[in-house]
Amino acid sequence: MKINARTIKRGGGQIFWHLIIILTVCIFLYPLLYMFFSSFKELKDIFTAGVRLLPKKWIDTNYSSVFNKLDVPRLLFNSLVIAGLTMTVKMLTSILAAYGLVFIPNRHSSKIFYFFVVTMFVPFSVIMLPNYLTLTKLNLINTLIGVVLPQLADATAIFRIRQAMRCVPISLIEAARLDKVPHMTCLRKIVLPLVRPAVVSMAIFLFVNSWNEYFWPLLILRSNELQTITLATKYFSGTEGSTGWGNVMALASISIALPLILYLFAQRTIISTFMSSGIKE
Amino acid sequence: MTKEERQVERAAMREEKRIVRHANRKHRNAIAFTLFLAPATIAFLVFVVWPVMYNIYLSFLEWNMVSPDKEFVGFANYLKIFTDAPFLQSLRNSGVYILILLISCMIFPYFISFAMVHLVNKGQQVYRSILFFPSLVSLAVCAVVMSFVFNFMTGPVNALLKSVGIRGPNWLNTGGYILFVIGMVATWKIFGYNLIIFLAAILEVPVELIEAAKLEKASKFKIFWRIIFPLTSSTAFYVFVITFSHALSYVFTPISVITAGGPNYKSTNVVYQIYEYAFKNFQSGRAAAAAIFTLILVMFVVVLYQALEKKVHYEN
Asked: How many angstroms separate the first and last alpha carbons of chain B?
């Protein structure tokens, strides 16, 4: 009897906390669902729906009109080039740097790592103007490369990949080095296969971050044929109360489709990489 | 030569060879180290270190970013921004944004992650995958969607308020409310990431401690305050630092997408003000001075964090 009362009480508490968490989940999910379902609604339906999510009548004219007004394939292509290039180069430099910091003995290792970490806390506002001036001098304004270059100085990937590499037994590398195996081979044949989850999740994370970048491309890219899918939302911003609502929602849905797919594909790996608590040294 | 002498000589030669080989390896390692770290380091030197130094230099100049002549004006730019009403307004707003985000992205996920680990026994994986996803959505998209959700005529938030008999405010055009909306956009982006960091830390707290406390019927609040908090405080400090620095920079995109700082500077923040100085008014000196101010602010918090971290470290 006593046990029963206790289990019931405990179960009741559980349900209460589940409800709190589910409420939080709903609040965070609602804007996404609102965006997705509104993109299939008629304008009148968006205005009168209130809290209701599902459309009264499903229509696809919002999507066709976005494709008519904007060169969507071009926007997606530009985003793909920028995000792909940023991710690839950043991954290469980060993997090399992380390997160097972990496996090549050097008395400056910790100082250099500390330097990378400190740069993570330099506010974006400090480097914005000088970087713009640097790119002007290099004649890279209004080029895709101009968007990519400043994004390369980001220590997140170095930090996370170094974290994963520290779990690789250093004796493996030492043994290989005694057999005169070059560092590059050690990296490719021994270390990379062992840290693959971290590398994959960082690659996706960097790709999505660059895909989502708004301010820097806005500042650098001028001509119409260089715009990205994330930037395209600006064509509709400030249209509050005007007729473009369904279109904006359609465009927004298109722009998050790829990040969403990548996340669904690798969410377990991504989350475990961020959970392998990188903060404690 | 006697046998011993020969032996000694051979030993000396071996030793010499070993030293040479060792030096060679050391030398080769130094070269490899440089080659492996050079690409990343160059990017950081060009796009972080140099900009910071150049920014300091710019902050002492009067310059319109185009003309060839720059005039050295000492601390005049610093004096000017601290007597500029919009900048002072942006400082006040930044304070409010920081406060909002510390509550919504530090305290709130701290409790939610505690609940997810110790107060419920199922669903943790599903909850965390859903809650993490918004941090992969672009701030620009999020800002646009939120401006619809909070629209005062047709948005669902006011519809919900109306159904319980409250007349919702004009969120996007009223000082105060707009700070909340922009704070919520940033929250949507930061919350999941911070939640994951807290989850990782809380999962490392030994379960036996919690079970023992539960057996002794300690209240949930007590378990959190007496066990979880002391054992995860270094993570909490870390989250404090990143939330503080995100609260400065992550509100930039929503401000620029939703309000452009308006109405009447009611929603602007320091970073947006720096952008206005630089790219709308072409006052590079003021922009640089304000930027240096944010740098000092963030570095102050980072140094504070390290001091606290050390203190906690020694106490344990």
From this structure: 64
